[in-house]
Amino acid sequence: xxxxxxxxxxxxxxxxxxxxxxxxxxxxxxxxxxxxxxxxxxxxxxxxxxxxxxxxxxxxxxxxxxxxxxxxxxxxxxxxxxxxxxxxxxxxxxxxxxxxxxxxxxxxxxxxxxxxxxxxxxxxxxxxxxxxxxxxxxxxxxxxxxxxxxxxxxxxxxxxxxxxxxxxxxxxxxxxxxxxxxxxxxxxxxxxxxxxxxxxxxxxxxxxxxxxxxxxx
Amino acid sequence: xxxxxxxxxxxxxxxxxxxxxxxxxxxxxxxxxxxxxxxxxxxxxxxxxxxxxxxxxxxxxxxxxxxxxxxxxxxxxxxxxxxxxxxxxxxxxxxxxxxxxxxxxxxxxxxxxxxxxxxxxxxxxxxxxxxxxxxxxxxxxxxxxxxxxxxxxxxxxxxxxxxxxxxxxxxxxxxxxxxxxxxxxxxxxxxxxxxxxxxxxxxxxxxxxxxxxxxxxxxxxxxxxxxxxxxxxxxxxxxxxxxxxxxxxxxxxxxxxxxxxxxxxxxxxxxxxxxxxxxxxxxxxxxxxxxxxxxxxxxxxxxxxxxxxxxxxxxxxxxxxxxxxxxxxxxxxxxxxxxxxxxxxxxxxxxxxxxx
Lengths: 217, 356
Description:
The complex is a heterodimer.
Chain A: H1 3-8, H2 10-34, H3 47-57, H4 66-89, H5 91-101, H6 110-133, H7 135-140, H8 143-164, H9 170-187, H10 195-213
Chain B: H1 7-13, H2 18-31, H3 38-48, E1 53-58, H4 64-70, H5 77-84, E2 86-90, H6 98-111, E3 117-121, E4 124-125, E5 133-134, E6 137-138, H7 139-147, E7 152-156, H8 157-162, H9 164-167, E8 175-176, E9 187-190, H10 197-210, H11 223-226, H12 230-233, H13 237-241, H14 252-255, H15 274-277, H16 319-355
Parallel strand pairs in B: 1-2, 1-3, 3-7, 7-9
Antiparallel strand pairs in B: 4-8, 5-6
Helix pairs in contact in B: 2-3, 3-10, 5-10
């Protein structure tokens, strides 16, 4: 079995099994813990609206901190959006998703994807350097943060190298790229990358809880 | 061609001009990635070469390799060079049969001990010697016997080079390649299903010129022909770069000649000279005819999944396993949530008991 066959076959199968298992575990567990018995009468009956409103307000920078966190805020959005475009709209990625999900969707031209991947990688590296050098950020960062960043950076680098056929044979680059993505799959449910699935539900839950208690937030 | 006649004399007698011969030598030197200064050496060595004895053994194969080499196109300098070798034994092409044929093989081995070339096409079955025999001799015995005094072995076609189709999972005959058996002779793998004829002539020309085998890649193939992947030399590559793919074999993309990556083309992982040398006198090759590369010059190309599955797609087992993983994850999630609630309840009860 070649390295590429391993990456496309058993490694992919097991990494997906771990991903699905872990994500279901975390989401179901979190949803059930979030469901609490009401001990008092709800102050308002618009908890859905409050939940959605909190998702929106928490997605914008706090007014009083706006100037101080502008770079981090905008760069965070920029690299996330660029990453999602690169992941979801690159033709070979869609072929991969189609093989797993059974359906595909239209892709963007390769130069666009190359651009978004480069932007995403550059910002992520800048944020990583900032995290490692900024005293406060360094203090609040733990191993989970660095591993989570690493498992995102490595697929970006290997993906760009595979696209450009630079550094090794294409099959080797593609296999390394797939293996790096599979490492991300394995880490995803157990580290901070799980925020991808839990950010909006947790914001909604916080908003709905505030609404029920009559807290304006 | 008489044994004492040189190749140069033979070609001249058959109407090949000096200019045509030098043109071939230049092309051959270029194909083998030799410097221009080597052209004269190639021409001199080829012109003076006496025809070498070649024994061609066919084992578990489909005769496609021989068909490719002998029926590729009208006679050319390459085919005249084939005529100029002393093909002393070849199942498909020889007139002799039965004991006479085997006697020819034995005589060639005896007369040219240590200097003949052995060409093999087809894989060798090890599961049972009776799966493939010639004159009652198993392929394994015949290969060992014939290779013992050969100068070098050329494994022609993917079956001889890597086991090929007979080696495909579950490999019922226990098929192996030549290099799995012969370990003490120089072996040149000219893989492909079938291989490109000019690669054979190039290897022969190199052997005639230098008396050595050409530089090989890590799979034992002539690096000059197998050094680059088809994707890098494909005329459809610009469409790959621009993200323009044919989605089916008859859609607009296919008609416009866009990249066949999505239709399973294995060009990016296949190392061969198809895209540059092409077939049928340089007319075309599979991708040029609208079909993706099958990757036929690579080991185990039958076992890399469907020919029509993109390289980027997974070769994974089943969605049922994922459904099972989801169900197991959900069950663990419910269990851990219940356990957390129970711990919380117990903690609260302890706190209430302590405070009261």
